[in-house]
Amino acid sequence: MKVQKIAGSLGTEITGVDLSQGVSTDLAQEIRAVFLEHLVIFFRDQHLSTSQFMALAQSMGEPVEYPFVKGLEGYPKVIEVKKLEHERHNFGGIWHSDTTYLPQPPMGSMLYAQVLPPHGGDTIFANQYQAYDELSDEIKQTIEGLKGISSSAKADVSKTREDRLKTDAKEAKPSSIESHHPVVRTHPETGRKALYVNVAHTAGIVGMPPEQSEPLLQHLFQHQVKPEYTCRFQWRAGSLAFWDNRCTQHYPVNDYHGYRRILHRITLAGDAPR
Predict the structure, then answer these.
(1) Is residue 210 over pLDDT 70?
(2) How many CA atoms lie within 13 A of 147 on its CB side?
(3) How remote is the C-alpha of 150 from its chain's centroid?
């Protein structure tokens, strides 16, 4: 197994591994160590059936169902992340950490390319350890101990789900979900602090009036996705990404109108942020 960083802040590509052959306990430990160090890892030229993709996910954690969209037939914990030729909005097309509105948001997510446009459709990831570390001392003191209000119903992110809810919704009218999580969370495995708000889901701050919380959140939203904190991944057939949802955000670039893009996603169970 070889490891090659793709950017200064986060992200590494792992080569010399054929995931279709299964992942031994020793290999899983190696991959997890790289994952924890580099926050998002990428594999190229993989050829996985849905059952093999699920087996890989199970070697890394506990797959869980996505709350709003139905999974594949026979694989309820595997969803299609897709945009079709006639659609204008891409699924999750805004900076976010996955489903932070849940009481226990996922530890991580895996995405495996199925159908790709001839150009575009990259995904950008941002390092939230670095985003926290490089806040001013004044802002760090201000946000220490605060809890964010995370909602599934913010307008901009809801718009990115509309096409999928028309065709693949679990419920005719999905209910909204809300949870309160620390603005700064401590990673349960590394012990490092990460900024844990995101423009897609964080709707306010507990106990703080909007006229105070909104300017603070807007500052954090802009700060946490500085180019210096990011890496950009260009998808190819057989590409697979696995990111740590506890200390990263991601943004799928919507620059391929008129083309189809389909990936399979599995999310892995996490803990209540602390």
Answers:
(1) yes
(2) 13
(3) 15
Helix (H) or strand (E) holding 3: strand 2-5
Active site residues: 96, 98, 250, 265
Q: What is the mean pLDDT of residues 234-263?
A: 97
SS3 content of the chain, % helix, strand, coil (to 5): 25, 30, 45
Which H/E stretch holds residue 216?
A: helix 210-223
What pLDDT shows up at residue 261?
97
In one-letter notation, the amino acid at residue 51 is: S
- Measured in degrees and rounded to the nearest 5, phi and psi for residue 81 equal -95, 110
- Domains in the chain with CATH codes: 2-268 (3.60.130.10)
Q: How many CB atoms lie within 10 A of CB 2?
A: 8
Mean pLDDT to the nearest integer, 78-102: 93
CA distances from 162 to 30, 46, 89, 265 (A): 39, 31, 8, 18
Run of H or E residues at 141: helix 137-143
Q: What pairing do the DSSP bridges indicate for beta strands 12-15 and 40-43?
A: parallel
- Using CB atoms within 10 Å of the CB of residue 101, give its burial: 0 to 12 exposed, 13 to 18 middle, 19+ buried: buried
- pLDDT score of 163 more than 60: no
Position 173 scores a pLDDT of 56
d(CA 263, CA 261): 7
Tens of pLDDT along 36-62? Answer: 999 999 999 999 999 999 999 999 999
How far apart (Å, rounded) are the C-alpha atoms in residues 184 and 194? 6
Supply 99's token pair: 């489903």
Closest CA to 66 of 42, 92, 99, 41: 99
